[in-house]
Amino acid sequence: MNSAGPIMTGNSLSPQLRFRDLTLGYERHPAVHHLDGSVEEGALLAICGPNGAGKSTLMRGIIGQLRPLAGAIERGGLDPRDIAYLPQGAQVDRSFPISVYDMVAMGLWRRSGLFGGIGRTDRTAIAEAIAAVGLQGFETRPIGTLSGGQMQRTLFARLLLQNARLILLDEPFTALDAKTVSDLLDLVRRWHGEKRTVLAVLHDFDLVRTHFPQTLLLARSAIAWGPTAEALAPENLLKARRMGEAWGGDEPCEVAA
């Protein structure tokens, strides 16, 4: 695919997200330009591109942290409680004195409120989420003592409890060991099987090609958007790399198919 026209992913499902001539940026300096397209409910979409391409900016726009400079984002009637977001670098203060159990339980806050009690059903759900990420026995461990992989497992367990229809992951597998990546990808596939919509910012093109059927290749504007094999074609990657170099992106973009 050499063009970046809008794509409808999936079959009969309705759009979960629609971008209409969307421009996002900071202090009127655009970082995402004139993005058009739709993401179908239940889609599994990778967002790729060089550094500074606007990938994290797009995520912040979707959750409402950034208001569009122009155009619009339509969220298919989603309530904010229906959107779960894991930011880049998991912006969590690891020095905060909180246990794995309590960190995971924070996934219930939007449903029960900050001071809502935890009932028997909630305790069961928390235990199941911790088990799902392979952290049984770590419940009382302070988060400051966790490895990077264990912390990311904890945050994925929190996402499980949010039970969201739209899940946004910003570089969720960076600097993780292969076993942790494999286990967390199992959760991503589980969400996809449950017809939840998952968008993930990723840099590992081999991982994207293996696990993500759709890809948006972004370099401030959409270079390609569609089936992953087509979106990550060599000519598209070369164009993204050249555009990144033109505005100072410093991350090399893979060219080989």
UniProtKB/TrEMBL annotation:
Region forming the signal peptide: none
Source domain of life: Bacteria
Pfam families reported for this sequence: ABC_tran (PF00005)
* Keywords for the protein's UniProt record, in alphabetical order: ATP-binding, Ion transport, Nucleotide-binding, Transport, Zinc, Zinc transport
Entry-linked InterPro entries: AAA+_ATPase (IPR003593), ABC_transporter-like_ATP-bd (IPR003439), AztA-like (IPR047748), Metal_Ion_Import_ABC (IPR050153), P-loop_NTPase (IPR027417)
Q: Which GO terms describe its molecular function?
A: ATP binding; ATP hydrolysis activity
Which SMART domains does this chain map to? AAA
Q: Which CDD domains match?
A: ABC_Metallic_Cations (cd03235)
What are the ABC transporter domain coordinates in residue numbering?
17-245
GO BP annotation list? zinc ion transport
Alphabetized PANTHER family for the sequence: IRON TRANSPORT SYSTEM ATP-BINDING PROTEIN HI_0361-RELATED, METAL TRANSPORT SYSTEM ATP-BINDING PROTEIN TM_0124-RELATED
Protein family according to the UniProt entry = Belongs to the ABC transporter superfamily.
Instruction: Please state what the protein is called.
Output: Zinc/manganese transport system ATP-binding protein
Q: Which organism is it from?
A: Aquabacter spiritensis
Q: What is the lineage of its organism?
A: Bacteria, Pseudomonadati, Pseudomonadota, Alphaproteobacteria, Hyphomicrobiales
